[in-house]
Design goal:
Blueprint lengths: L1 H12 L12 E10 L2 E15 L6 E8 L2 E8 L5 E8 L27
Length: 116
């Protein structure tokens, strides 16, 4: 049974290319928003605080501050509503999940940039 599920999941993600990004990176997610009979692309720019799951069930969470209020949004990695993802800057972090960022305000939320 597990083999059948893995085969189906593998077929669903074939041919879909996703930009490589990690936790700590600042990214722009270009998402399709449908309002009535019109469709538009909305950009959500923020810090990736976690990635979880595997294969076609993988999700990622992006956090930004909008008018002084923290806003988080979680997307499936292979979602058809995501047009594309741009990496703005690479971050240097030592954690897999940056939940501590939620308790920080202002300059304390900064993440060092990864320089190669």
């Amino acid at each position: 049974m597990q083999d059948i599920i893995k085969e189906i999941e593998k077929e669903q993600i074939e041919g879909k290319e996703v930009t490589a990004f990690n936790v700590g990176d600042t990214i722009k997610v270009h998402a399709n928003i449908v309002e009535g009979n019109r469709s538009r692309i909305q950009v959500f720019e923020g810090l990736v605080i976690k990635k979880q799951g595997g294969s076609n069930r993988a999700t990622f969470t992006v956090r930004k501050t909008s008018n002084g209020i923290g806003v988080e949004r979680t997307w499936p990695l292979y979602s058809p509503t995501i047009d594309h993802i741009d990496v703005v800057r690479r971050g240097k972090v030592r954690r897999a999940k940056l939940n501590y960022i939620r308790n920080r305000v202002g300059k304390a939320t900064r993440v060092k940039e990864l320089v190669k």
